[in-house]
């Protein structure tokens, strides 16, 4: 029993270790103006106010970069999911020449080190005259998330028995009808999980957002936040409030699919 | 987060005997029905958008980075649209530069340390979670979820604030504990110190994924294996070696591989802390590539660095990648 309580103590200490930055972000953000930067020891806050959130929200660039981030991320993810589903259905439901190579291509493509493709991507976007344009980011995030979406959705489609579709087709549904009425609804949870993964990848992305967009009006939130010192100076309270606002969408999505993302990897492990 | 993951529902699909994957049975019926030309071309039509996108947005850049690495391409050539071939000059420039070797070595040491630390602690926490009282386990899981979900730029900002020289909570705490020398101590005065903080941040944020997935693997190990080991009188370590390790090894390899891919190319955290400084001491390969290519507009040289980056990454992961492809090929 002593061993068990020792383990529990270690477990709780680790929980504090993981939780502390979130705690510190929120409490710093809630501190009244002028009390954040202090030599006093203020681990536990005594008063709370939302002024920092108002400051962050109304800072020039915050709302526009939030809007840009949402626009770019959602567009890219939507495109990746739609294109990913069609590819997943093809890989999972049809036998055709070249199927195996295509599946392997998807597997390899999701390991492509995108960071190492920075220079050609930059040159390509410049040639396409998309440099400084949000659509360049949409294209990059679409490309980054597509192989992953197609691969994961293929797994989900494989999990739906083909007999269900066939039964619908016997009952007079066309191929499209069977897909729309049988497969698509069953694919729901898989679609949610996959889009959240893709969303978080794009939501976090920094390097391409920094390189491909230089005008302030088109910045995304990570880039805007990385330059917070120009916006906030040493106003750490405001910076923490902005970070907290940036975290909310990701946290909400994480909570939705937490269980799914955990069990995921086990199936893909290489034996031996 | 881009990762090699199949999904929960994919697992049952694996139970179908390999001789009869759904696609093949479906396809066989297709042929018997003597489908129309449209039916036969349907899979290709469905694949076309994805294939075009991948060839255009991944395949072409991969070719282009090799081609660019043999060109002299600075701002002048770019603006004039000139094509100047220089053979291996860019590679010679890069490889003769002592800084490149320093940076490569630093990147390797950094990647290996971060991967070993995060996978090791991830495994430790996964093992620990099995013996925790349920409410403690849930508390730990929620705490890890918070760390995991925080966007990279948000956590980087929070760490900057915690490690702040004058008002950071860490220095204040250390002073309060009696370490007076930490008053006004700068954690970013040397490259090693800066990279240690970056490493801590990355490990802190990487552990949750590792711990959760390894824990899921541990939970899947049949109970009777442990009972049998207990009856045979095995010690804790012997049980780990004989029962846990063989069951978890492949999963562990998988997450180590993924961590290597992710940690090798870290850019945001390093850049945001000190832009690779002080005086270039925390510069890693992705930062070097950015500095050469984007900041200095030496696109040819930067492309050579990118190619060398891919070569290094390829060398580290080659063995595992080959095995992974073979296994997956067998499964398809």
Automatic annotation (TrEMBL), chain A:
It comes from the Bacteria. Keywords: Cell membrane, Membrane, Transmembrane, Transmembrane helix, Transport. One of its GO terms (cellular component) is plasma membrane. PROSITE patterns: ABC_TM1 (PS50928). It is found in: Cell membrane. One of its GO terms (biological process) is transmembrane transport. It is a multi-pass membrane protein. Its main location: membrane. InterPro entries: BP-dep_ABC_trans_perm, MetI-like, MetI-like_sf. The chain crosses the membrane at residues 70-90, 102-122, 134-153, 184-203, 236-257. It holds the Pfam family BPD_transp_1. Residues 66-257 form the ABC transmembrane type-1 domain. Belongs to the binding-protein-dependent transport system permease family. This is N,N'-diacetylchitobiose transport system permease protein. It comes from Lentzea jiangxiensis.
Automatic annotation (TrEMBL), chain B:
Keywords: Cell membrane, Membrane, Transmembrane, Transmembrane helix, Transport. It is found in: Cell membrane. Pfam families: BPD_transp_1 (PF00528). InterPro entries: ABC_transporter_permease (IPR051393), MetI-like (IPR000515), MetI-like_sf (IPR035906). GO terms for cellular component: plasma membrane. Gene3D superfamilies: MetI-like. The chain crosses the membrane at residues 42-63, 108-128, 140-162, 251-272, 299-321. The lineage of its organism: Bacteria, Bacillati, Actinomycetota, Actinomycetes, Pseudonocardiales. Residues 1-28 are annotated as: Disordered. PANTHER family: ABC TRANSPORTER PERMEASE PROTEIN (PTHR30193), INNER MEMBRANE ABC TRANSPORTER PERMEASE PROTEIN YCJO (PTHR30193:SF37). Its main location: membrane. It is a multi-pass membrane protein. SUPFAM superfamilies: MetI-like. Belongs to the binding-protein-dependent transport system permease family. GO terms for biological process: transmembrane transport. It comes from Lentzea jiangxiensis. This is N,N'-diacetylchitobiose transport system permease protein. Residues 104-320 form the ABC transmembrane type-1 domain.
